[in-house]
Amino acid sequence: MTLQPGAKVWVPCQVRRGVFPDERNVVLESVATSWSGYVSTGQLKDQIDNGRTALMATVVEASNGQVSLRLPGQAVHASYLTGPEEQFEKIERG
User: Fold this and answer.
1) 60 alpha-carbon distance from chain centroid
2) Residue 30: what pLDDT?
3) What is the largest CA-CA distance in the chain?
4) What does the alpha-carbon distance between residue 22 and residue 41 come to, in Å, rounded to a whole number?
């Protein structure tokens, strides 16, 4: 799989219920960085309150098997998530 900028991917994550019914606190980790923030439940692969699922993200840069992803929502730390391309599942648009 070769990801290109603009591609949508699923990023494995851990979620917990947020303050509002339609938000979740999300924690992501990759080999290089970690990310945490609050996202709408519509950005999650599975509509769960707590547990493991995946978060939709957009590839902003891809080079030599590494990708940087822009994540939705309100981030605790403003930065891209970076990691090996194999860690992320491309979302096929039909």
Assistant:
1) 12
2) 67
3) 40
4) 5
